Amino acid sequence: MDVLSVKLMALLGPKGWIGPEDCQPWQRDWLDQYGEVPLGVARPKSTSEVADVLRLCHAEGVPVVPQGGNTGLVGAGVLGEPGGVILSLSRMNAISSLDLSSGSISVEAGVILGQLHQSLEGTGLMFPMHLGSEGSAQVGGLIATNAGGSHAFRYGMMQDLVLGLEVVLADGTVWNGMRAVQKDNAGYQLRKLFCGSEGTLGIVTRAILKLSPEPKQQFTALLAVKDTSGLLKLASKLRAEGGEFLSAMEFFSDVGLGIALENIPGLVFPLQSRASFYLLVEAGSGSMQVPLDSILNEVMEWGMGEGIVVDGALAQSEAQRAVCWRLREEQPEGQLRLGAQLKHDISVSPGSIGEFLNVANEQCFELLDGVRINAFGHLGDGNVHYNLSPPIGQKDFSGREKEFAVNIARLANDMNGSFAAEHGLGRSKVALADTLRHPIERQLMARFKSALDKKNLFNPGVIVTRGGSL
Amino acid sequence: MDVLSVKLMALLGPKGWIGPEDCQPWQRDWLDQYGEVPLGVARPKSTSEVADVLRLCHAEGVPVVPQGGNTGLVGAGVLGEPGGVILSLSRMNAISSLDLSSGSISVEAGVILGQLHQSLEGTGLMFPMHLGSEGSAQVGGLIATNAGGSHAFRYGMMQDLVLGLEVVLADGTVWNGMRAVQKDNAGYQLRKLFCGSEGTLGIVTRAILKLSPEPKQQFTALLAVKDTSGLLKLASKLRAEGGEFLSAMEFFSDVGLGIALENIPGLVFPLQSRASFYLLVEAGSGSMQVPLDSILNEVMEWGMGEGIVVDGALAQSEAQRAVCWRLREEQPEGQLRLGAQLKHDISVSPGSIGEFLNVANEQCFELLDGVRINAFGHLGDGNVHYNLSPPIGQKDFSGREKEFAVNIARLANDMNGSFAAEHGLGRSKVALADTLRHPIERQLMARFKSALDKKNLFNPGVIVTRGGSL
User: Fold this and answer.
1) A331-338 helix and A318-329 helix, angle to the nearest 10 degrees
2) If exposure means fewest CB atoms within 10 Å of the residue's CB, which of A318, A449, A462, B389 is most exposed?
3) Phi first, then psi: what are they for B91, rounded to 5°?
4) How much of chain A, in percent, has pLDDT values that exceed 70?
């Protein structure tokens, strides 16, 4: 065993240090695309242990990759080259200091999102971030990714929900920014910069998160929608009539529905008719005096009158609500089980989704006739998961993977949008960023990286390739 | 005339370059506390002229201080030492690309906030930032300050409202980050970092701002409230019953009301009774089906039943609404006209405002018996403008200015809050930051400064003192 491993094992004990022979559960990413054999997995149980690990690795020049629930989709939580240390935060999972009167809570980085949701049940407050992987995703990883999810257009992304942060820096020093206020203009917004830094600038160990009042009533409906243009008209009407109540406007296509129904046992489709698209609408209010059903039903009726909404069902119970949400949230898993797939995570301004889909679809069919386009995502913020499966009867993409990725990314970029909307750059999109974003932007990022991580030991190869050298 | 002035005049023309003899309107800050004689005032009319100015100044090693509406309160928009160039953005005031379907707008940095509000009238959309100086404050300055204001707890601070940015860097290169999406995780959140950087990292020249649907109905009430504890109970009840509708919960004290009524002609107090505190409540909804008046009147009645609300008036017209808002917004001007004053801009978690006021008041009276405490601000986000006037019959603070500042700042800091909530650090609070914030935080900021402005030419002395050297 090498000297560093011996030191880390002595520091962390047998529960805290896992050698390379036992580290399969941490080694590969969720999509099984990245992940080299590490020196080992460090599992510290406190901020000071994290600091000690970093001091040792820093002294030895050994790279460190922080890992949360390992649900990321861009390879940012595993090693790009063998021999580094994976730093798992999962043992740091304490929830403390719920402040009911101010609406905030203090959590350690390893707290699983679903556990945070559960811990708040019955308090009248909630943490308003929801995404498919919430049963595994950890707060630290969500911060590092600047996660978005289905409720972001109402409540914000992770950077909007973080009030305070504690971060361990490259040399093991600890920045304590655990403040509990929205307004803190005492210099640069460090807390915002660490959100989305994907473990390349520091290790987030604790956070103070902003909570929201839990709605007292909720409305959930699944609608079958004629076409893209109808989808956008409906979204626009929903925003106009029920803007402050809307918490989710999730869409998926009939292609995706079919793939999910075929590949995921137990899914139920609650409507009579199929259509090109489906819209899952959720709204909530903190006041029982708001006629929420009436406000939203009027929009549904308008949609039916216009011929936009072909069919629809209101969830009358929590169980029915879960049925609707599963259809949307099993989209990624359904496509994964189908076999080869290409995932693209883009955003354009919400009003331009139709234009994006029209042009992207045309380009994709030109590249590979019959390719199955499974576009789903978040109508409220223009974030589309534009995923592809091979044509029926074909196992692969005829070698056009890179062309798909570049075309779709370039289209979003040219429309003043993003080719890395909520999943981040990680390892998989660094080359795209170098191609599509201006060198000035890439150099700015490299300078920040270099300013905080001179030795390039934090997640090397993620976000910036050149290790911060200019 | 020196060589740089000659070059700048040749570049910018007579309208674009104002020599030191004519630059009084730009030289001093609003509180007349800072501002040395500049080499001149550059007034470029395009991004490329800004870039040219910076290239010339960079080559000559001459400091540049960007200035918007010059309404800042911490001396960040004027020179700390003679001989630099003031870069006024006021000629760059174009508003373009209103995107109705996506809710965004593109503006140049010199657009005045009030003009932006006006330009959106009748569109169904609004830019939801409001503060006392909106008739002069410019978008670029609001971004540089990361302004907050009265509606921030519902709609966010400037960093939450900026989708895209264009920034000119120290050497005159231009970062074009003019994207129009909320979700853009293609690397570090540069757009967030420039918000609140007070002109020390780059010059913001254009922005894409996020708009919100304009409420279709509004509720405004002015309430006289018994005491601090009543104020907090009322705020908590308002959040619980009308959370998603509340857009402002502004409080001020009877001390501040008295000072304003005495010093500002034309103010009207619309209530019958005086009390220790006043709360200005504003709420809005995008749906006419919401019984807004009923929801909020129930809370008022609850407050009266509990003996918390002593008196109250609902604004029945836009004119009555303006009467209420003027009482709150003339607080700073009223106190300025009274004579010497000490301004403190702190935040604590909203539930801790009562504790903060109790302890701070006690400390202040101990330091100077009879000192007049004018605390007002934003109940929703815990931001208190804790301003002092000398005791009646006294013109100054008996030399205890610094003790007041340090005590109040330390108290907010120790309560996990901020001593620089929404006005920034500027020149006036850098020493406080060096005293109260951990050296690690200060060093992080110095590293970012150094990474973007090696020569320390952007607003030297603001945010970090040491020019980025560590």
Assistant:
1) 40
2) A318
3) -80, -10
4) 99
Which pLDDT belongs to residue B466? Answer: 59
CA–CA gap between residue A10 and residue A16 (Å, rounded): 9
The amino acid at residue A320 is: Q
Residue A277 CA to residue A274 CA, distance in Å, equals: 8
Cβ–Cβ under 8 Å, residues A145 and A76: yes
CA B359, CA B342: separation in Å to the nearest integer? 18
Kindly calculate the radius of gyration of chain B based on its CA atoms and give it in whole angstroms. Answer: 23
- Supply the pLDDT for residue A466: 59
Residues 6 or more apart whose CB falls under 8 angstroms from that of B170 comprise: B54, B58, B202, B452, B453, B454, B455, B457, B458
Q: How far apart are the first and last CA of chain A?
A: 36
Opening angle at CA A413, ends A408 and A418, nearest 5: 90
Q: Which residues of chain B make contact with A156, given a CB cutoff of 8 A?
A: 156, 160
B468 pLDDT exceeds 80?
A: no
A77: its two tokens: 């939580």
Which tokens hold the place of A340? 């080869």
Q: Give me A74's structure tokens.
A: 């861009």
pLDDT of residue A465: 83
Neighbours of B469 (CB within 10 A): 10
User: In what order do the strands lie in the sheet containing A345-347?
Assistant: A309-314, A217-225, A277-285, A246-253, A372-378, A383-389, A345-347
Please tell me the distance from the alpha carbon of residue A367 to that of residue A361, in angstroms, as a whole number: 10
What is the per-residue pLDDT across A232-286, written as a single tens digit (0 to 9) for each?
999 999 998 988 999 999 999 999 999 999 999 999 999 999 999 999 999 999 9
A178 touches chain B (CB under 8 A): yes
**A184 close to B (CB below 8 A):** yes
Residues of chain B with Cβ-Cβ distance to A232 below 8 Å are: 101
Q: Tell me the nearest-neighbour CA distance from B262 into chain A, angstroms.
A: 31
B108 DSSP β-pair partners = B206
pLDDT over 50 at B456, yes or no: yes
pLDDT digits (tens, 9 = 90+) for A381-432: 999 999 999 999 999 999 999 999 999 999 999 999 999 999 999 999 999 9
Among chain A residues, the shortest Cα distance to B179 is held by A416
pTM for the predicted model, two decimal places = 0.96
Confidence tier at A469 by pLDDT (50, 70, 90): very low
Say which of A183, A240, A451 has its CB closest to residue B421.
A183
| B340: Cβ contacts below 8 Å, ≥ 6 apart | B389, B390, B395, B396, B397
- Split at pLDDT 50, 70, 90, the class of B467 is very low
A70 φψ region: left (φ > 0), alpha (ψ -120 to 50), beta (else): left
Which positions 51-70 of B are in contact with A (Cβ < 8 Å)? none
Q: Is the pLDDT of residue B303 over 90?
A: yes
pLDDT tens digit string along A212-233?
A: 999 999 999 999 999 999 999 9
Q: Is the pLDDT of residue B102 over 70?
A: yes
Q: Residue A468: is its pLDDT beyond 50?
A: no
> For residues B126 and A163, what is the distance between their CA atoms, to the nearest angstrom?
26
Rg of chain A over all Cα atoms, to the nearest angstrom: 23
Does pLDDT of A87 surpass 60? Answer: yes
Q: Write out residues 200-219 of A within 8 Å (CB-CB) of B.
A: 201, 208, 212-213
- A16 φ, ψ to 5°? -100, -5
Distance CA A342, CA A326 (A): 22
Closest CA to A442 of A417, A467, A422, A423: A467
Element holding A14 (H helix, E strand) = helix A3-16
Cβ contact (<8 Å) for B295 and A285?
no
Report in angstroms the alpha-carbon separations of B80 from A66, B44, B423. Answer: 43, 22, 18
